[in-house]
Amino acid sequence: MPSSLAAAHAYLTQAVPSARVRILLRGVDSFGGVRGSPDDYEVTIVPSWNLSLLPREEYNLVVNIESFQEMDPAYVTYWLGLMDERLVDGGLAYISKQSNPRESDAHRVAVRMEH
């Protein structure tokens, strides 16, 4: 499991102690429980290679942190399309991108998706 996913889980559980947070890996909650219903959790952290494990439902928020700049344009187009397909009308897509690792300022955008 990438350390960034563990850090996201640790941060969210500290910042919002009442939230039910999990990381979905190969259909099993990485912190002990068998994968439950999406309704059992308020936040599910999913690495891109496990997106197929998610039910085909619509979500209120999708987040991408600094991976688009490492992808070919065709893959970025694919992921943006998937985000658009999975977000509820008016859902939020948060994308953070650092165009140059030597730059101190990352470029961030939050986009409200309307269908």
Helix and strand arrangement:
Blueprint: H1 3-15, E1 21-25, E2 28-29, E3 43-45, E4 59-65, H2 73-86, E5 87-97, E6 107-112
Parallel strand pairs: 1-3, 4-5
Antiparallel strand pairs: 1-2, 5-6
How would you explain this protein's 3D organization?
- There is one protein chain.
- With 115 residues, the chain is an alpha/beta fold.
- The protein folds into 2 domains: 1-51, no CATH class; 58-115, no CATH class.
- Helices cover 23% and strands 30% of the residues.
- It contains 2 helices and 6 strands.
- The protein has helices at 3-15, 73-86; strands spanning 21-25, 28-29, 43-45, 59-65, 87-97, 107-112.
- Strands 2-1-3 form a 3-stranded mixed beta sheet, covered by helices on one side. A 3-stranded mixed beta sheet has the order 4-5-6.
- A hairpin with a 2-residue loop joins strand 1 (21-25) and strand 2 (28-29).
- The longest helix is centred in the last third of the chain and has 14 residues, at 73-86.
- The chain is globular and about 35 Å long.
- The N and C termini lie far apart (34 Å).
- The model has no long low-confidence stretch (mean pLDDT 75).
